[in-house]
């Protein structure tokens, strides 16, 4: 049975054989929700590549525990990095998109206010919406036992996105593209790959042209047209097998 995973704020000073503590929301989840106690084992991740297996030695109150580090590994960042640029889906699918991208290994997720997005993030709505995306990324990282939690930022307009990807390797998923993702043989040469996923209404010709002018290449995944929430997961899996990431 897999050990439960909890997010620790900082494992940079953790060492095998040394004590480590956990409190706050994660400590409460371990002590009160999971009812964990002395002698039980857990996994701690810090979201930056460190993962520690530890044995609980003591609990205090409803949200604090002490543990002894049994094992500690520092996992390198995958290469090439993949930044998922996700057009903002409708509310019921937004967190699912982040969840699936995180499970599939996205290193960073950028919210994209594409031209055809139904959901619009204004200055008032953006912070709360982005916080939900961050929470979804943390939950998915723990569920998939990742030591790294993808950074989440945005939203970017298409103009801002074009500036961001200029000079970088960028792939925009498009159902009418002639080049297939599986036919790309040079992805390992890139340090970072931007993977652009359009909204429910698709990417219009004018917007696609702007992205291509900025250097993005239109890529087709396969014969099926996927939902915006699941497209990045399928593409990330393909990139994983086409590169040294997996």
UniProtKB/TrEMBL annotation:
The reaction(s) catalysed by this protein are: uridine(1498) in 16S rRNA + S-adenosyl-L-methionine = N(3)-methyluridine(1498) in 16S rRNA + S-adenosyl-L-homocysteine + H(+)
Domain (Ribosomal RNA small subunit methyltransferase E methyltransferase) ranges: 78-239
Q: What class of enzyme is it?
A: transferase
SUPFAM superfamilies named in the record: alpha/beta knot, PUA domain-like
Q: Does the keyword Transferase apply?
A: yes
**Pfam families referenced in this protein's UniProt entry, alphabetically:** Methyltrans_RNA, PUA_4
Q: Name one GO biological process term.
A: rRNA base methylation
The catalytic activity of this protein is classed by the Enzyme Commission as: 2.1.1.193
Which key words are in the record? Cytoplasm, Methyltransferase, rRNA processing, S-adenosyl-L-methionine, Transferase
A GO cellular component annotated for this chain's UniProt record is:
cytoplasm
A single Gene Ontology molecular function, please?
A: rRNA (uridine-N3-)-methyltransferase activity
Known InterPro entries for this protein?
Answer: Alpha/beta_knot_MTases, PUA-like_sf, RsmE, RsmE_MTase_dom, RsmE_PUA-like, tRNA_m1G_MTases_N
> Where found?
Cytoplasm
Annotated ranges, domain Ribosomal RNA small subunit methyltransferase E PUA-like: 22-65
Which family, according to the similarity comment?
Answer: Belongs to the RNA methyltransferase RsmE family.
Briefly state the protein's biological role: Specifically methylates the N3 position of the uracil ring of uridine 1498 (m3U1498) in 16S rRNA. Acts on the fully assembled 30S ribosomal subunit.
The protein's name: Ribosomal RNA small subunit methyltransferase E
* Annotated organism of origin: Corynebacterium aurimucosum (strain ATCC 700975 / DSM 44827 / CIP 107346 / CN-1) (Corynebacterium nigricans)
């Amino acid at each position: 049975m897999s050990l439960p995973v909890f997010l620790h704020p900082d494992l940079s000073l953790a060492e095998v054989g040394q004590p480590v503590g956990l409190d706050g929301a994660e400590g409460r989840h371990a002590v009160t929700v999971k009812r964990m106690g002395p002698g039980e084992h857990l996994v701690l991740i810090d979201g930056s590549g460190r993962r520690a297996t530890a044995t609980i030695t003591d609990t205090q109150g409803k949200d604090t525990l002490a543990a002894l580090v049994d094992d500690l590994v520092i996992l390198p960042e995958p290469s090439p990095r993949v930044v998922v640029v996700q057009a903002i889906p409708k509310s019921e699918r937004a967190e699912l998109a982040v969840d699936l991208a995180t499970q599939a290994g996205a290193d960073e997720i950028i919210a994209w206010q594409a031209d055809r997005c139904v959901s619009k993030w204004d200055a008032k709505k953006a912070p709360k919406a982005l916080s939900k995306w961050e929470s979804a990324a943390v939950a998915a990282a723990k569920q998939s036992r990742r030591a790294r939690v993808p950074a989440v930022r945005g939203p970017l307009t298409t103009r801002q996105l074009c500036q961001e990807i200029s000079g970088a390797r960028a792939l925009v998923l498009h159902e009418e593209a002639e080049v297939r993702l599986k036919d790309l043989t040079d992805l390992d040469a890139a340090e970072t790959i931007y993977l652009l996923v359009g909204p429910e209404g698709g990417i219009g010709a004018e917007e696609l042209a702007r992205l291509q002018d900025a250097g993005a290449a239109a890529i087709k995944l396969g014969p099926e047209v996927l939902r915006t929430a699941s497209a990045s997961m399928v593409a990330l899996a393909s990139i994983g097998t086409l590169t040294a990431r997996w």
